[in-house]
Prior knowledge:
The protein is of the alpha+beta class. The protein has helices spanning 15-33, 41-57, 104-109, 154-165, 183-191, 203-208, 226-239, 252-260, 272-275; strands at residues 62-67, 83-84, 93-102, 115-122, 133-139, 173-177, 195-199, 219-225, 242-248, 269-271, 280-286, 297-298, 303-312, 317-326. A hairpin with a 4-residue loop joins strand 13 and strand 14 (317-326).
Amino acid sequence: MSKTSATPPSDVLDRVLVMEMVRVTEAAAIAASALVGRGDEKAADAAAVEAMRKAFDGLPIDGTVVIGEGERDEAPMLYIGEKVGGAQGTGPKIDIALDPLEGTTITAKAGPNALAVLACAEEGNLLNAPDVYMDKLAVGPGYPDGIIDLNKSPTENVRAVAAAKGVEPHEIIVCVLDRPRHADLIAELRSLGCGVVLIGDGDVAGVIAVTNEDTTIDLYMGSGGAPEGVLAAAALRCVGGQFNGRLLFRNDDERQRAYKWGITDLNKIYTRDELAKGDCIFAATGVTDGSLLDGVRHRKDGTMTTHTVVMRASSGTVRWVKGEHRKSR
């Protein structure tokens, strides 16, 4: 759904916490940036995870990771269900969705659009999505509610958005992950004359791109990670735009994982507000340069600069934060 009504401010989230979340993503991005182009995906991810976990320890919250690095036996830190924050039992109860390094391959190869990302909301307001694929469809703000529908074909969705925008279908630009599984989707879009922006990784940035007119991207289509879908929905909740997501299961093990996290309707199409409810905070810091954010810069004098976007649903505020950090401190 587009953002047509005000989101009431949370009794738990506050303005101070908005900037605290910036510090968390900055820490992860700085740690990962030391490994840009080094060809080691695991080392880059581990550095970001450790830095983000340490940054959470300093926050006065009673936080729970609802989307993280995997289940406890798969991830030593920031696993699903892990408690974070320095005020367990006394601080505000907050659910957190995170990806300390969205784009591990991008980072290892020094490609564009690697991010350190998180979203938070009051307890129970973020879908605890299993680590499976999700079919995604997103459009930016300013369109009638229900303009996109995963039950319809890519052609029907392009034509609906084009009509609402007052242009021809061939003038619509769609962002798609460059994967073999999307060959038919890409062919269908190009048969309409659409511009197709192919990205190698980082579909959170791809979804958010539909909200920024400077990117010229109208729609995001295709399948990617379900956890990233929740993160993207939280960002859209803050700035407007519509999102549809449907979980995709490759085997019975993945279906059982969904049941474990309380998902019973395996064919459900989730809207933006079913993935991320209420007042949300979304923050992302660039690790490498991209369409949304600049990457971390390391200067000769030992300082580092970061570029972060932070959003809040209740105020609709979007802040672009430039940070300067000194290694000596």
